[in-house]
Amino acid sequence: MQLETYDDMDGRRVRLTADERDRLLGEYDNDTRRQIGLALMARCGARCQEAVDVRKRDIRRGDSTSMEFLRIEEGKGGKERTTPLPGDLAGMIRAHTNDHAPDDFVLNIGTRTLRRWVVRAAEQRAAKENDQRWQYVRPHDLRRTWGHLMLEEEVLPSVLMQWGGWEDYDTFKKHYLGKHSEKVMAEQAAKVGWI
């Protein structure tokens, strides 16, 4: 878990490892709707408002590929974008919305409820792991984690910016790039013959 202080506000920017992200999502293994809510942010990069705005019709297969996609109809600034949707999450959403009409919301909640779900899951992790750093986890940290983990998987920054709806590289860099994990640093160092 990486924590950074904000320049102009209390709290911390948090970036979770993939394992930490999965443990957080695992807090809702028995509650499909809550797990979907957190996963839309942590595994698809949706902002809190974008996650609650997802409708059944926004889940689709690619035209020229079997990959699943999530359409963010009206992202920040009113801009539409499309981001990859993990197949298991797409299946979970389809099962959850089986009896929904295409225009029905997947979660049918407000942003305050989704924020409470994230905070509650983080509180539960803090108690289970006796690690108070979890207290800093907020909904936007799940999007931040998604972006950071995508970069660690060597997704091109230009592609990631398109998926996440970022237009300004400096803003993207300031808020989403974190320190690389030891695994990534070791992989990169292995490319250098004299190390």
Please characterize this protein's 3D structure:
This protein is mainly alpha-helical and 195 residues long. Helices cover 47% and strands 10% of the residues. It has nine helices and five strands. The chain has helices spanning 18-26, 32-42, 48-52, 87-96, 111-129, 139-152, 157-164, 169-176, 182-189; strands at residues 2-5, 12-15, 59-61, 68-72, 81-84. The strands form two sheets. Strands 3-4-5 form a three-stranded antiparallel sheet. A hairpin with a 6-residue loop joins strand 3 and strand 4. Helix 2 runs antiparallel to helix 4 (87-96) and helix 2 (32-42) crosses helix 6. 32% of the residues are buried.
Helix content: 40-55%
- Count up the helices: 9
Q: What would the principal axes of the Cα set say about the shape?
A: globular
The tally of beta strands, per DSSP, is 5
Q: Give unreliable regions as ranges.
A: none
Beta-strand content estimate: 5-15%
- Judged by helices, strands and strand pairing, the structural class is mainly alpha
How much is the radius of gyration in Å? 17 Å
